[in-house]
Design brief:
alpha/beta, Glycerol-3-phosphate (1)-acyltransferase, six-stranded mixed sheet, globular
Length: 219
């Protein structure tokens, strides 16, 4: 069964959230019932963000994830293998130790872009986190980056452009997340109305989507 990884991860995510968090979802009706969509998501927690998406969305969703954080090669290889199993495009961030090998990082990220386009071509949901680093993380973000919300990086605009070649209509769905830590964390996941490029250049599209994701994250 092609979506068995998603089914497994969805059950795992729901059980994990049930043990330690309360999830509140709003605006799920903005997510198309079928066909492709690019979810652009606020990044707050290294684990809970993905769990919330998997638990809330009734359709298979493929997360674009960074595989550069494990310092142990065996752990990193296992993470890469898990991403291939789940069909989660894997990227390397330039600030990471792996990112120092620019040629390897470019190859990895180009492959992730191709895989994400293929998933959208198949009519699937792909979720990206343009901030690249969460606020709450087991592996601290580089000292060169400030604390709190980070500006959106470029990349998802190119993915949208490639996915919509030939007149295709792949919407961008902005997704806000707020996270209140505690003995039981409170996670609010808010989906906004679809955004279409409609003549916007990449910079304008990125600013438009970022502003909406920020608004949704504030509640």
């Amino acid at each position: 069964m092609p979506d068995m990884p998603w089914r497994f991860l969805r059950v795992w995510s729901r059980r994990s959230l049930a043990r330690g968090a309360d999830l509140h979802v709003a605006g799920i009706e903005h997510l198309p019932a079928d066909g492709p969509a690019l979810l652009v998501v606020r990044h707050v927690h290294h684990q809970r963000d993905g769990e919330a998406l998997l638990a809330a969305i009734e359709r298979p969703v493929h997360l674009v994830v960074a595989i550069d954080w494990p310092t142990n090669r065996a752990t990193r290889s296992a993470l890469a293998a898990a991403c291939r199993w789940a069909r989660w495009p894997a990227v390397i961030r330039p600030e990471s130790a792996l990112g120092a090998n620019r040629a390897n990082a470019r190859r990895c990220n180009a492959r992730a872009m191709r895989e994400a386009v293929e998933l959208l071509d198949e009519g699937r949901l792909v979720a990206v986190f343009p901030e690249a680093y969460p606020d709450i993380d087991n592996n601290p973000r580089p000292d060169t980056l400030p604390a709190g919300a980070l500006p959106f990086r470029s990349g998802f605009e190119r993915l949208e452009r490639l996915a919509n070649q030939g007149g295709k209509q792949t919407p961008i769905v902005p997704v806000g997340i707020s996270f209140e830590p505690g003995e039981r964390a409170r996670i609010s996941l808010r989906f906004g109305a679809a955004i279409h490029r409609r003549g916007l250049d990449d910079d304008a599209l990125r600013r438009t989507v970022e502003a909406e994701v920020r608004r949704l994250s504030e509640g």
